[in-house]
Write a structure and sequence with these properties.
Elements: E1 2-15, E2 18-24, H1 26-31, E3 37-40, E4 52-55, E5 58-59, E6 63-69, H2 73-79, E7 86-93, E8 106-112, H3 119-128, E9 138-145, H4 154-159, E10 163-168, E11 175-176, H5 179-187, E12 197-201, H6 204-216, E13 221-224, E14 240-242, E15 248-250, E16 257-259
Parallel strand pairs: 8-9, 8-12, 9-10, 10-11, 12-13
Antiparallel strand pairs: 1-2, 1-7, 2-6, 3-4, 3-7, 5-6, 13-16, 14-15
Helix pairs in contact: 5-6
Bound molecules: flavin-adenine dinucleotide (FAD) and FE2/S2 (inorganic) cluster.
Length: about 260
């Protein structure tokens, strides 16, 4: 992990309120793995004071890409950054997904809303992994959002050969309902399939339900948690999450990827 001064290579709107930013840094491209994140200083002055955490969306030849939703001051400032502007970043931070987890016929990735952001680099790694354990595995990606225009990255997953299923709460695309209901419907007719792993990122309520479904089906499940962060390195205890058996873990240092069974939901 380093503090580095980098440069914006590209920052473009990909849907209303959602942006992709390419950041030039061969160091980050080499050092980062799916599931890890960076902390970006969004402004040159002290407002906002704290850096904002963003997950690794994709690894590029000359840097990395992040995908973010504008939800407040920090992300609004980020969306204004132009090509060539400098960026102050700390990273890589956190652990990463374990792609070797579990053995079986098919792997499931499930995303809720902007939770899709870190799952593209994971799918890319799974798709290109030369390991025999992954060879021939099907990759299913379930993407849920409130409405059609908030469904992101469908094409990226399809390009990797993944089978993509969509859920929208308003029914404007795909299954009408929550991604977790789609997951239940997806799993129910195939009780004989031994899924090796579920990987999930999205709102906490969604992750809690995914964890419950995975436990019920005895499928190993890795989740990417999001908590408000300050230091990003385990020093301020601001991102503590309660774990089973008592005690807390820090999402920034011990996570953001956890085995779903570890968390005291
Ligand atoms: C490890 C990690 C990885 C993340 N990766 C991504 C990513 O790839 N793409 C992306 O768009 N966002 C990601 N986030 C969330 C992102 O960090 C926040 O949306 C961002 O910090 C908001 O900053 P802001 O100044 O724009 O909004 P603020 O003004 O700080 O907050 C605006 C609203 O967003 C809520 N909020 C802020 N931070 C979080 C959070 N961490 N979790 C839940 N709600 C929050 C606030 O409660 C408030 O309602 C990630 C968070 C973590 C912890
Ligand atoms: S953000 Fe400070 S301990 Fe995690």
């Amino acid at each position: 992990m380093r503090q580095i001064n980098t440069m914006v290579l590209e920052n473009r709107q990909v849907a209303r309120g959602f942006y992709k930013m390419r950041i030039g840094s061969t160091y980050l491209a080499d050092a980062m793995s799916p599931g890890q994140f960076i902390e970006i200083r969004c402004s040159d002055d002290l407002n906002p004071l704290l850096r904002r955490p963003l997950g690794l969306h994709r690894i590029l030849k000359n840097g990395i890409e992040v995908l973010y939703e504008v939800v407040g001051k920090g992300t609004a400032l980020l969306s204004k950054k132009r090509k060539g502007e400098s960026l102050d970043i700390i990273g890589p931070l956190g652990n990463g997904f374990d792609i070797k987890a579990g053995m079986g016929q098919a792997t499931i990735i499930i995303a809720g809303g902007i939770g899709v952001a870190p799952l593209v680099s994971l799918a890319e790694e799974i798709a290109r992994s030369p390991r025999p354990a992954l060879h021939g595995r099907e990759l299913y990606v379930l993407i849920g959002a409130c409405k059609r225009s908030h469904i992101l990255c469908e094409k990226d997953f399809k390009k990797l050969g993944a089978k993509v299923l969509i859920a929208t709460e308003d029914g404007s695309k795909g299954y009408k309902g929550l991604a977790t209901d789609l997951l239940k419907d997806f799993l129910n007719p195939k009780p004989y399939i031994l899924y090796p792993a579920i990987y999930a990122c999205g709102p906490n309520e969604m992750l809690k339900t995914v964890a419950w479904i995975a436990k019920d089906r005895r499928i190993p499940c890795q989740i990417s948690l999001e908590e408000r962060m300050a230091c990003g390195v385990g020093a301020c205890l601001g991102c503590a999450v309660k774990v089973k058996g008592g005690g807390y873990k820090m999402v920034c240092k011990d996570g953001p990827i956890f085995n779903a069974e570890e968390i005291a939901w």
